[in-house]
Amino acid sequence: QKIEHLRKLGFNGDFEQIERMYNGEKFDVRDEEYRRLLQLSKEYCMRFTQLSELISRAKSAEEIEKYNKEKSEILDNLFPGHGAIYGCGDGLFAIIGTVDLEGFNYINARVHFNASALTHLDEYVFVASNVEFGDNNICTQDGQTQLSRINVGRDTWIGANVNFAFDAPFFILYDIPTIFLPYSIQIFLVISTFPILYVNVGI
User: Fold this and answer.
1) Do 183 and 156 touch, CB atoms closer than 8 A?
2) Can you say how many angstroms the Cα of residue 135 is from the centroid of all Cα atoms in its chain?
3) Helix, strand, coil percent content, the chain, rounded in steps of 5
4) pLDDT recorded at residue 88
């Protein structure tokens, strides 16, 4: 599905390395199509922030509607097959196809889904501002690397200024569903250096 999405965006080369990347396998960061993916993602994100600024200066409802439509199209391009998204202020950054959004996710301003991780947000995840998922300093060996995985459980709230940057190959977020109340508390457990567990416990 994601490869078909890339074809719709104009990619027509060899997708072997990108497919390996999406599958969480080792891939070659020197691959031409992968480098193109990074560049197009950057262009989308820069335009997204520019549109937020244009909306703030718009002088008519027609202009606002036009700019919001383009923002929505960019979100569709960055997050293929996504569920309902709310928020998404300026400073958004993501690599096309590396983030899966199940739906009813609120993403605040300056949230970065960086190149070192494959990120999955389950339903009803609230992400505050200035949150970093992974980083853009990818360690390679002979041009090869493997992305980490970040899985955020349902009904989770991530506070402002959180940075999920790590060296371990997997960063797993577990959740215990809230049964009676719509709110939850967050408990962080660090066991040695790996694995790192983030447990969302319903109250």
Assistant:
1) no
2) 11
3) 30, 30, 45
4) 86
